[in-house]
Amino acid sequence: MFNSVKLIFIIVWIKIQQVILVAIEIIRGRVTFYPPSVKSFERNFSLDLKAEHGLMFTNATSAMEAAMFSVGVSSNSIVGTTAFVIPSSYAPAYNLGAEIVFLDIDCNTLNLDYVSLIENTESNITTLVVTHFYGNPCDMASIMTWAEAHNIIVIEDCSHAHGAIVGGRHVGTWGHIGVFSLQGSKTVSAGEGAVAVTNHDLYYARMAAYGHQESYKGFGIDRHNYELPVFGYGRKMRIHPLGAVLATVDFKYLNHKNSVYSRWFKEVQSLLLKSTYFSTQTVSPDAEIAGYAQGLPVILNNEISADDFVKKLNSHGINCFRRSYIESLDYFGTSEGVPNSVDAFGRVIFIPFYQFVDFRRWSKLIALLKSSDNATS
Asked: Is the full-model pTM beyond 0.90?
């Protein structure tokens, strides 16, 4: 009950501040171009992560496309990505003409099976997209050691993982570029939006020129240093300034949200540790899961069990969903060779946290988890 009350208070307080600040910005006429709200968020977000640069975009798909362009993804590139992610994470590679190679996940973490990747000595990947699934950090130290040894660019998709840390560093700062979605279902939300961070001046300059037309010249970037076209590359991917205001307020209370989500996650995790029916993501000892995509993934032991549990949750008024992108895999590449991912599409159920502002729903979920597990033991 305490968690639900705390979350209600956080959400209400955030919305009150957002209404006031958005109204002020509208009155001031700061509703287009790059008013202080945009540049302030970029600066504060990157400073918090200890990154050199932050750059906002209209959404994470656009940010990912700009990031890929900036590191040279083209028709000569092969982009590796996990298959168990939303296609928006890797579709920009296709749009830039690159070949996409799907990589499998680890069944326990739901993240990239980096052990198999590292052992694949014949890999010809030029760029790797690493997704921290539902806020669970990947083993970035191992991945970066492998990537640097093979001269591979790494882009982190941190859309689910606001505030997550691994090895003492924020996700998004291990790779060459980190992309954070600010879409409405994310823990830091602009309604629609994204922010990319990087420590590389060249990638920052190229992302800015790619997605912000000639405005990039006002970001302290000398186009002659990076051989950039005067009008940029013609795409306009800038965030709406009022979205930046919303995200600024949300970001102030990120740690408060994560504290609530962490308690819920740990309660379910401890409940399911000895279960033979359910499990949830395994988290590395040196990692701090956060963001959670504002939800909880529950892994069933088979697809039939998942079907039954979805019906049971729905019958008790608990919202949940599954996602299957197998058809997308076969459109952008092939689903062959990723059996764990294909299996996970049927066995993983996602339960959004927003509904647990009603503490009775959380109690129902815990009761259902306990009763379903007991029924199979």
From this structure: yes
